[in-house]
Write a structure and sequence with these properties.
This protein has 302 residues and is α/β, with parallel strands linked by helices. It has two domains: 7-212, Spore Coat Polysaccharide Biosynthesis Protein SpsA, Chain A (Alpha-Beta Complex), CATH 3.90.550.10; 225-301. The protein contains eleven helices and eleven strands. The strands form two sheets. Strands 3-2-1-4-9-6-10-8 form an eight-stranded mixed sheet, with helices on both faces. It has a three-stranded mixed sheet with strand order 5-11-7. The radius of gyration is 19 Å and the shape is globular.
Length: 302
């Protein structure tokens, strides 16, 4: 399939040399041809550079000091030229027909800003971990009004939307990026929530990529996942509220979740106590009471 629409695939990599080649090949071997592949290596200390040299005439490579996933997103987007931007974690892989189906959705619905789809979970041996079914149908979803009221839950047919299942129009993404680089991990939350709050989009209920579950997943299998989840929620809420104040009702929910799981988080990059104080101090008293009550409810549920 060919089209005038150019698609940029942004691959973010940090010490995933063992998976990187498969990710790049999956981006290059698409049935859709008008594609540029950009790999941002975020200061890897393994042999990722040796892998990247094999593709020097086929991809655009950005090698930078380690700064986290958000900084990799920002760097890749600055270099990109595509009308549609698709994200790919270096330990995941696209199925060959992904871009063709994504472009078709954008062509059919030219007023959408995003296209999100689920991923098929596989293990290190390429075995499918679980089979998922989707009772709903693919289609256009507009949850902007729900986001403004803080009521997203149950409004989309996907339980989770992660990096390798996210595609955004350049027009929308340039309103979101650059994003704050202190969100060093799970930075896709910031992008997807902003996108959902700003534009309608297309949910494509096909597993068009593989998410690899392995011992070194940067987030999925972390032993300190609860603490990291807390950090991400607090930083995401704080920065979304600052840039997109119309999403305040929704990000208050994220913030409440974050402080419910917050247990004296330590970080070399961010003063979380200061962020929590600034956030709560900025809230009107009624809103502040609602956030703290919601946090207590989350704490009870956990």
């Amino acid at each position: 399939m060919t089209s005038k629409i150019c698609v940029s695939i942004l691959i973010n990599n940090y010490n995933y040399a063992e998976f990187l080649e498969l990710a790049i090949d999956s981006a290059l071997n698409q049935t859709y041809s008008n594609v540029e592949v950009i790999v941002v290596d975020d200061g890897s200390t393994d042999n990722s550079w040796e892998i990247l040299k094999k593709y020097e005439n086929k991809i655009i490579t950005i090698c930078k000091e380690n700064g986290g996933q958000a900084s990799a997103f920002n760097a890749g987007f600055r270099k990109s030229q595509g009308d549609i931007i698709c994200f790919l974690d270096a330990d995941d892989a696209f199925l060959p027909e992904k871009l063709e189906k994504v472009v078709r959705a954008f062509e059919k619905y030219p007023d959408i800003g995003w296209c999100f789809h689920p991923l098929k979970l596989i293990n290190a041996n390429y075995e499918i971990i679980d089979l998922q079914s989707y009772p709903d149908k693919s289609g256009v979803y507009d949850v902007t009004s729900h986001m403004k009221r803080g009521k997203l839950r149950g409004k989309l047919p996907l339980e989770s939307i992660i990096t390798s299942g996210m595609c955004l129009s350049r027009f929308l993404l340039k309103q979101i990026l650059p994003m704050p680089e202190e969100i060093r991990i799970t930075s896709d939350d910031y992008i997807k929530y902003a996108a959902l709050g700003m534009s309608k989009g297309f949910i494509l209920l096909e597993e068009l990529a593989h998410q690899r579950i392995h011992a070194n997943n940067a987030y999925t299998r972390r032993p300190d996942k609860k603490q990291v989840t807390s950090e991400v929620a607090i930083l995401t809420a704080y920065n979304l509220k600052a840039k997109f104040p119309f999403l305040a009702a929704f990000v208050n929910e994220i913030f409440a979740y974050g402080i419910a799981t917050y247990t004296d988080v330590g970080s070399n990059h961010v003063d979380f106590n200061k962020i929590i104080h600034e956030y709560t101090s900025s809230l009107p008293i009624i809103e502040k009471i609602k956030v703290m009550m919601r946090a207590k409810i989350y704490s009870f549920l956990f």
